[in-house]
Design a protein that fits this description.
Length: about 200
């Protein structure tokens, strides 16, 4: 028991000494200490597997981008549809934690139409620029169904972009209904610089 306590105290003292000497030598040379490494991994790196979190938005939460586009709710569990314009775009703002990684977009629909609907995530930069990031269509025409986008790594940067979920039915009427959109994301991965202390 005493040996482990002394090992911990010694490890802590050595670490503190290294930190003090590094900062002290930088200040002695009249230079600033080097910046700590970024805590959030870069967009292109993939670390250990992690748990998914989900943001599920029912279709009834989306509204037409053009307020003049008429729409209706089907009464089937939060599904909506465009009543007159298949080209109408419906959207809703989404809020995710800074540094979170969006990996998938899933669409839930009631589709008996001959064409497929489209859903996607768009980022806006506040200066007129935008970027469509993830895309998924409905699939088939057999009624209620779901479809998943391909894997796409998108890192959330709330200071630089606003994120929006979009849906376009591509046909007017109740044969194409949006019942929900679900984003699968993971929380930021933080690097650990100190060795883990095990029992």
């Amino acid at each position: 028991m005493k040996l482990k306590r002394w090992q911990f105290i010694l490890s802590f003292a050595l670490l503190a000494g290294l930190l003090i000497s590094a900062v002290g030598s930088a200040l002695a040379n009249n230079t600033a200490p080097t910046a700590a490494p970024a805590l959030v991994r870069s967009e292109n790196s993939v670390l250990a597997p992690h748990s998914f979190y989900y943001l599920y938005v029912p279709g009834s939460a989306l509204r037409p981008r053009n307020s003049g586009d008429p729409w209706a709710a089907s009464g089937d569990g939060g599904c909506i549809y465009s009543t007159t314009d298949g080209g109408a775009v419906f959207n809703v703002d989404i809020q995710l934690p800074e540094g979170a990684g969006i990996d998938y977009l899933r669409i839930f629909y009631n589709d008996t139409a001959a064409v497929d609907a489209n859903a996607w995530v768009t980022s806006y930069d506040g200066e007129g620029g935008f970027d469509d990031l993830l895309y998924v269509p409905s699939a088939g025409n057999s009624g209620f169904g779901t479809n998943l986008s391909p894997f796409t790594r998108v890192i959330v940067h709330n200071a630089n972009q606003a994120l929006v979920l979009n849906w376009r039915p591509n046909v007017a009427g109740s044969t194409m209904q949006l019942c929900g959109l679900r984003i699968a994301y993971h929380m930021p991965d933080y690097y650990i610089y100190l060795p883990g202390i095990l029992r």
